[in-house]
Protein: Catalase
Amino acid sequence: MFYHDKKLQYKVRVEKPNPQFARALQQAIGGIEGEIRVCLQYLFQAWNSRGPQRYRDMLLDTGTEEMAHIEMLVTAVALNLEGASSGLVDEIIGNNTMMKEVMGGMDPRHFLSGGLGAMAADANGVPFNGSWVVSSGNIAADMYANVMAESTGRVLATRLYELTDDAGMKDMLSFLIARDTMHQNQWLAVLEELGHGDMRNVHPIPNSFPQDKEAKEFSYVFVNTNVDPDEPSIGQNRRWTQGQSIDGKSQFREEKAKPYGQEPKLGPPAAEGHAQVEQLQQAGEKV
Amino acid sequence: MFYHDKKLQYKVRVEKPNPQFARALQQAIGGIEGEIRVCLQYLFQAWNSRGPQRYRDMLLDTGTEEMAHIEMLVTAVALNLEGASSGLVDEIIGNNTMMKEVMGGMDPRHFLSGGLGAMAADANGVPFNGSWVVSSGNIAADMYANVMAESTGRVLATRLYELTDDAGMKDMLSFLIARDTMHQNQWLAVLEELGHGDMRNVHPIPNSFPQDKEAKEFSYVFVNTNVDPDEPSIGQNRRWTQGQSIDGKSQFREEKAKPYGQEPKLGPPAAEGHAQVEQLQQAGEKV
Amino acid sequence: MFYHDKKLQYKVRVEKPNPQFARALQQAIGGIEGEIRVCLQYLFQAWNSRGPQRYRDMLLDTGTEEMAHIEMLVTAVALNLEGASSGLVDEIIGNNTMMKEVMGGMDPRHFLSGGLGAMAADANGVPFNGSWVVSSGNIAADMYANVMAESTGRVLATRLYELTDDAGMKDMLSFLIARDTMHQNQWLAVLEELGHGDMRNVHPIPNSFPQDKEAKEFSYVFVNTNVDPDEPSIGQNRRWTQGQSIDGKSQFREEKAKPYGQEPKLGPPAAEGHAQVEQLQQAGEKV
Amino acid sequence: MFYHDKKLQYKVRVEKPNPQFARALQQAIGGIEGEIRVCLQYLFQAWNSRGPQRYRDMLLDTGTEEMAHIEMLVTAVALNLEGASSGLVDEIIGNNTMMKEVMGGMDPRHFLSGGLGAMAADANGVPFNGSWVVSSGNIAADMYANVMAESTGRVLATRLYELTDDAGMKDMLSFLIARDTMHQNQWLAVLEELGHGDMRNVHPIPNSFPQDKEAKEFSYVFVNTNVDPDEPSIGQNRRWTQGQSIDGKSQFREEKAKPYGQEPKLGPPAAEGHAQVEQLQQAGEKV
Amino acid sequence: MFYHDKKLQYKVRVEKPNPQFARALQQAIGGIEGEIRVCLQYLFQAWNSRGPQRYRDMLLDTGTEEMAHIEMLVTAVALNLEGASSGLVDEIIGNNTMMKEVMGGMDPRHFLSGGLGAMAADANGVPFNGSWVVSSGNIAADMYANVMAESTGRVLATRLYELTDDAGMKDMLSFLIARDTMHQNQWLAVLEELGHGDMRNVHPIPNSFPQDKEAKEFSYVFVNTNVDPDEPSIGQNRRWTQGQSIDGKSQFREEKAKPYGQEPKLGPPAAEGHAQVEQLQQAGEKV
Amino acid sequence: MFYHDKKLQYKVRVEKPNPQFARALQQAIGGIEGEIRVCLQYLFQAWNSRGPQRYRDMLLDTGTEEMAHIEMLVTAVALNLEGASSGLVDEIIGNNTMMKEVMGGMDPRHFLSGGLGAMAADANGVPFNGSWVVSSGNIAADMYANVMAESTGRVLATRLYELTDDAGMKDMLSFLIARDTMHQNQWLAVLEELGHGDMRNVHPIPNSFPQDKEAKEFSYVFVNTNVDPDEPSIGQNRRWTQGQSIDGKSQFREEKAKPYGQEPKLGPPAAEGHAQVEQLQQAGEKV
Structure:
């Protein structure tokens, strides 16, 4: 079963809200390359697993971690949308040429349906589709599906990195890119155990993104999200927790999951989004 | 962020596998009334929340709990599918009249795509659709969406209860029905705080299901899934953790989340499902 | 069965066409919060109803009214699109900076697929999806689904109201917002009959929209769309046709459906949309 | 705008409920060949019409008629499902071999989600999709879309006719098949006015269904659903209301819409479907 | 079975890349009026055909031709996207007012998911949907579906023609519009054989597009894509290969399929799209 | 561009029609693991390719081959459906207990919508979805997507193999399984060129299917579908046309595409499917 705390896995900071970038970030939430897909994919593979147990455990650990990534990205969308609705009003009503340009590519449903919140959809507002969740019953096929998901996912993250010069967003993405590096490696580690030989030079995909831009301290660490005090989950001898990484670029290590970010703080609801009166009045309250 | 252990929130036991019932259970996983929807809905509402904070916290607690319900149901599907593929082979090849009857309504993708595993889809194999995740930015509209989801969800669970006489499945469903009772009550508690008056007689929906068939010890308890040791999460004065329940039938109480079930144990892969050789050989291994 | 006349339920007037606003209006037609959904939802609930009869009758009356709302909104989209295609041509070809700004957020399919007409889709062009039509067989669950639909629907309508300063569009929306007020109240009236207590203070959702901006003469009137001369449909003693409204803000009354609007008049097809020659020649003809 | 009465356009009678046939009928409700599609397609074409007016009027008349067809088919599904859930319980639990055979092909969501009611979905439970609603802005393209819809629709209806020997269902289908004959003819009449020459020998599609099995008194009558007393809607000189039909097989005539069926009467909710207690108690009440 | 060469059926040239036009072109690839739909529709009708054989052969020929149209349009999208990502970066980051205007309507997934490549989706990014592939088993119904598809398809192509002043794009579209003219005629020829009379004046739909703008040398030629040297495929007496065209505007003729275009040459990957290093290094290599 | 002949790539023979197996085969046509997906995926990757050219060429060759696989499978579905509709009539009408058992799991749309023809949908009738077509612009990510598609595809094919004892179907599947072996190897060959090391032991996935059951003469041959006489397409030095296969189990070789099967011959339309009269009369005609 599952637990949470209120802090983010890594800090999410937006220096200057940008509703166009919020739209682009949706691809990483509800798109086929996004985090809802990998979260459900790893968890369904774990829950459907018929052995051996170490793969089930590993999938559970990482599926749980991906929940925290969805959380970070939804927070990033919400922060990037702050102020967007007044700009959208200006744009559509036509009083404000400058805002029009800024707002041109916003997803209108971020305001209309979400009241400045994220959706379970991609960058075009196309809903997340459960057909993308691959759990085939064949561990090698599943691992290829996972390497593929982390490869297209990391490609997406590096493109998002290119689309922003907001230092906060670049920082968040450097963390997510690093985690994709690790996740590619850990699925490859299973393939190695299943008989694959050397796979060192292609990864991490894309190999054209300079690794010194990723948050390297997180690039080769297996995050263990298991909180059972009776479970000797740290320190077991696993291919993905020690020894050389599969891409040959570093050493694996393992770490108990803990938040590096803080509890997120969103601004109050926008008046034009018509939250309830009580929300507008109590938005700043701590309880 | 999120954590897990390897045990189920409540025990999942199948006395006699039934692949038709596995198909029906899919509606509670990936259908519009199902657990993926409520899980994502509560978490998106929490993550998009712009205050007050107590609602965000509550949504996080319960969204996290719903993850454990998906886990229970996927486990139940997998257990109900054991032995199904050999029956399906017999049925389609046509050697075995008796099995044909048993297998008549099975979802063929449970074997073809899942290798006897669950999918992110409904009872007809229609994939989960992200459009069902409602997070409107208006807390009252969201709470109505949540009461509605728990009402159609509890109606579904009671219909599933009628569709089985497997004692293990009835036990699991009595737990899920009880949790739906609580969840209806807790969203109503928010509406009460927002100014709603008395709402006691309609709930829990459906009111035609005898509450002595639900696992009553879980029907009015708020499950706190927060594991932050620094967080005084238990014992705060909340409308949904103490006092009379909104349906007037009991008293609310609060409990730290803990597993009442065990780690799930699925059978080995079926030979005809063509897992990798290594899976077939190592299925029973503990590592 | 069903009948029509050629007039609109309420007047639809656009002072200055705005294709961006046309796109936003699509959410109220084919989005999950939109009128196709409530129309089909109320009608399926009526047609599937197994008693008592007064709820079936009421659902039929209001489901029929929602048809007229789709009609109004499609007309509004078509009127807002007039002139849009020449602007789009200018924008994409790049001769006209000013038009480019106006057209920036237009849905390209309004021209490409619709020839300046509305679609059965949302503000992002995602098609209407029949999975949103809830008819559960449990009247209380259905009523919560209906309150939820009218709550998110009214939130959407108030946000659309904020997005325009066109007096015609504001007038149309003030009518639709008023009808949502009534519809919230009438579904709550069923819940009251089923045993719910006082529900007066939360509604209409959102409570942050000033009710003096809605067309108040329509906010608490049950519109009876039944035209059977043998049917004593007006004047029956129903909770939703007389007495205090559930939100405590007014008195219910009942009215036979009649058009307050006129027959809609759209402009001729745009040359660049390539209607048939006969359409271009005969567009203004009365027959 | 729109009106209704409580009677069906044509009688719907089921001699022996058959849940497998209920599933097949769903294709005619929410499938791509079904009535929701033509209803919305004709209405969107009418509402988006930019002239000449006679086509808009005609589309409104027939779009309104299609609403009544959805109503008839939903009623037919609900009647065919009576008793189905107890059979389904027996089937899945496994006590009853005979019922198992009868129930083998039932849609489980008819019970699980609908409580023995119809859905906005096709025969496989795939939801209705708004992308099927064609309104192109070109009247000739639209008319071909309409002929095509009525051709695949009539093919479907004749196949459903072959799938039943229930006299009530055959009678209902003979009416719907006749209406499809007329609708093919009336869209062809528009094409004739637009310059098409002789189109007499192919229609009605399929031409392999003996027309003496359709309810011939309805096969060439234009049903005028306009109830405006000020509108001279009957008796106007239209190609589709008088003269030889386009298929050369009869003469067109026109009729004011009126119900040939009665108010539908469904049985009470099934106990195992868990309607509210009040529904079960009051199901037979007339109010 | 199927074969290919590396050249395009007709030349595809873009004078000035325009990512907004790339988005519009997507409708002709993955939209309901697009080429994936007609390609699969004609091939499924051929493969499912139960005679007579000449229709199966014809459907195979033209379904195969449509593959080449998808290829042309994907090439056109890729060429129109060249340079788009640096513009998008500028736009979202906000350094470049001019580019912002140019890029306003780009599909963000063309960069995020495709790395400046086309997708199997429509102009709003909504994925191609297999439900649009009509193969009914009734040849007349299928032919109406095909005429309808080519009618809405040709309407779309003429609208795209209006949206560009790029001479290369206009040239490509003049070819596709001509092929739609032929395809409308050839499906009508089947209807004529099935008993339809004169259909000459309505077509090609839309009749408001001047035929001297289409590539007339391709407007009435049946393209025979069969390469079997043993097959007397050219010169058979078919209604669609000789004699007057159905629209009465020209004479049919037949031609063996051959490429009029060259092998496409796309530019190298954009640095910010993060292809693999090897792709960036070897992009210009001939092997 | 593309060409065809009328023969199948490999023979398709059905000894005894089995409509349940027809339903299962749909997963290999329109499911996420199916041939429409790989066909479009490889072709979009080719068309969007920005170099080097040898990968584009290879993707074109194999994407074209996949068209022939869809054709084989659609033919197999149509052959398995022969006689199905009369059985379905018996089943639903209820005269025939034995047929009922045979038909229990048939897809009703195979009759209702297809008239005994295949659809662009999966084994549950869920339509093919264009979102599955991965073309990322990163060659390594794309190759992983392709290995994954061929792995889940081959897993599916081996499960279908287990579901039939029809010698014709087993023969067809042994060919398709062999081609999946080759296709896994050829995408791995690209990864090897990009720097991957040894990958020999895991493949072909699943490794639990005995390779002596696949049509081994096709398991390591690159099928060159290019028919351009000017193109030296055979005999070029490519990693996937000569040398040891990547899985270490054989040697690669290359072959010009040619049909090993014959022109398919389906039976005439079933009377109850209501094809046109002309189809029923002329079904056996060679022209």
Remarks:
- Chain D has a mean pLDDT of 88.
- The beta strands of chain D are 2-4, 221-224, 253-256.
- Chain D has one domain: 19-81+117-258.
